[in-house]
Specification:
heterodimer, A: alpha+beta, four-stranded mixed sheet, 13 strands, about 30% helix, B: alpha/beta, elongated
Amino acid sequence: MHAPLKPALSSKVYDVGDFSAAQEFFHANGWTDGLPVVPPTETAVQACLDWALMPGDQLIGIEPVRAQPITAEKLAVNAVMAGCLPMHFPVVATAWSAMLQDEFLLHGTTSSTGGCAVLVILNGPIRREIGADGTFNALANSDRATACIGRAIRLALINLMDVRPGGIDRTTLGHPGKYSYCIAEDEEDTSWQPLAQMRGIPQHTSAVTVMAAMAPRQIMNEWTTDPREILETFAAEMRANQRHYSIYGGNYAIVIPKQLREHIQNAGWTKRDIAEFIFERARIKRAEWGDVGKGAVVRDRGESVYTALDSPDALLVVAAGGPAGGFGAIIPPWMGHKTRAVTAAIGACVDCEPPK
Amino acid sequence: MIRVLDPTNEMKAAGIAAAARPASLAGKTVGFISNGKEGTKAYFAHVERLLRSELGVREVVWRTKSNYSAPADRHIVDEISRWHAVVTGVGD
């Protein structure tokens, strides 16, 4: 008698009649985001695990507040449902290991009325391997890989953490990024250091950065080549967010497409230069709340200055977007520094410290 | 026929038993753990009035979390054992 080569997957199984019956079964159980899902068969789920060299019972992490264990098998089930190919799965698993770090505050960010989404930013060689594209339509339906990876993050939140609207998810409005919110940096078409390297990941190492993020706010300035003037528009949008949404500082991302990026690069500015400029310019006085209908909470602190960033390091500068158009975007944090962006290497052990 | 896998978390976290419910709140101490949001002030003030006037609660202790989206701070949790009941989990 031979022992099985692999332990069987441990998930409960259900037999459904056909593809359509599978859809109705999953929707009826509240296991979807409202869109059709790929039926998660054992073969498809096992293929994801095999690609990532993970046994099904590998613990990706434990959610710190509700102590929910997250295993590779369950993430793979949700990744298959989202349309992921096996080669996408290591990104999903690494993103989740990052989301489970204390500083990300997963429970707070996913249950809050504030309604943010998990923004996933890809860096390194894996982008090219899986076809993640950081050019045209970078913040939307740019390619299969980022669409499916972003969706897998949400489906796993729904099914593994009960983050359903009206359940754990108490969001008032939300935004479309809650379906899928994943972008790849356009590393090939910039002289700037990739985001992951700016955040301590070695060169040529694939990595994922997760951020609890509100919807992108698009800016336009195609009437100057001066980096200060271009970045002033980004800073003004951050100040607007401080006035209209939350005054508190945290991780902001800014996405700079090629047209504006080239002006800034040609002037010799690095990402660090950008971050230092934005740090100085993106700040408001509390009294400005009085201009936008929030005078009741200015109180006696009108002269207090609030910076959008705690420090220049809090700015995530991402080179991405189509080749033409004087556009850019700022992506605000869910709520100040209550959550922190987390970067993790994919399939590599940086400093050989296992995740907590 | 398609055989599909369950996508939900079947490894539920170990739960904890709820404390015994007091038969009466008369003469008891009740703690409020506020998430610190603006709307909680009037709400808890009203609940305190009701607890004192209608249920005879002797003392009401107010505590506020330092982060409204995170669990209560350790020093607040440590105080709970000194109260007979606690009110928390309110929304905005």
